Amino acid sequence: MRNVTEVTLFVVLQLSLYFLNILNICTSELIDCIDAVIKKYGNLTRVIVGTDIFIVLTKPEDYKLVLTNVNGNYKSSVTQTWEAILGDGIIRASVTTVGIQGIAHKDERDILHKQKEYISPRKPGNYTALQYNNYNMTIIQELKPIFYNYYDRVEQIRVNASNKSYDIQNTITEATSFTMLMLAIHTDVQEKLRQEILVTFNNDKIDVQRLLSMRYLYMVFQETLRLFPVVPLISRQLTGDIKLESCTLPEGCYVMIPIFAIHRNPMYWYKPLEFIPERFSSTRHRYTYIPFGMGLRDCIGQKYAFLFMATIIVNLLRRFRFVTVGNLNDVKTTTDIVLRLQHVKMSIFRI
């Protein structure tokens, strides 16, 4: 007979996967819906998500006023549905504070130790049927607060280093995947970038100074995140009134900033659905490109993300050539909390 502890953990896992699947469907449909609403009604409109009404802002002058205002800093309430899986880490936190790392890691070790204790195999024959049943009921009751209380403890120390590292690594993984696919589709861009790599490094080891000097690589990075921002939407709940050019957003108002739609808006971008890294060689409106957010809550790891991703890409293009059939219109994405590629096939050839 399967141990009740294993069954409990299995059920929790299945519920988590079910939740992510629902979130994936809802978020993907939401992006499409918002895009359609913006095209029909313009820069300032509203959408209803569940029981909440969101004001959708796509005009740079408008969302700049929100994201750079202290009253536009609060986001925990609008990401509440993620709490069951993410807890109150850096993705949901409204105030960026540095956690006490020692306490953070001790807190995690205590919980992991307790979980390990419950899922460790037991010697058979130690219990009668009644004792075994009572023991398993005790486990179920003790497992419940472990899953619930973990994120309460994370709340106490706010954002710890592990959370920051996880979020950055997640961004790097998805950004690198999208970049390699763009290079596989646009082989001319891939070859141009490979030439820049050869000129910059030849056969030398990679170093930060020369990575930062690679202008074309950075343009490829920017254009990839323009078309495929890892975080496609930003949401906030206002903690005070914010005055825009055309109206005043009241305290308590929910605001949504659809990065995905802004980055593909033909008002701000020439041929917005095409992959053209060179567009970043000239100046543009500062606030029409916001893959890492902006203002008080912008991503603190964006330079690190670029350097990490650049290191991976340089090493890959030195050794391999990437090719895929299809074009940009064939790219399929999925969304749970971040934008991800779906059903990708590439051919890789050693140079």
Report the portion of residues in β strands.
5-15%
CATH superfamily of the largest domain: Cytochrome P450
CATH overall fold name of the largest domain: Cytochrome p450
Number of strands: 10
Query: What is the C-alpha radius of gyration, as a whole number of Å?
Result: 24 Å
Protein name: Cytochrome P450 3A13
Keywords: Endoplasmic reticulum, Heme, Iron, Membrane, Metal-binding, Microsome, Monooxygenase, Oxidoreductase
Membrane topology: Peripheral membrane protein
Subcellular location: Endoplasmic reticulum membrane; Microsome membrane
Describe the structure.
By secondary structure, the chain is an alpha+beta fold. Helices cover 51% and strands 11% of the residues. The chain has 2 domains: 101-157; 161-350, Cytochrome P450 (Cytochrome p450, Orthogonal Bundle), CATH 1.10.630. Strands 1-2-6-3 form a 4-stranded mixed sheet. Strands 4-5 form a two-stranded antiparallel sheet. Strand 1 and strand 2 (52-57) form a beta hairpin. Helix 6 packs across helix 9. The longest helix has 38 residues, at 4-41. It starts with a helix and ends with a strand. Heme binds at residue 299. Keywords: Endoplasmic reticulum, Heme, Iron, Membrane, Metal-binding, Microsome, Monooxygenase, Oxidoreductase. This is Cytochrome P450 3A13. Its cofactor is heme.
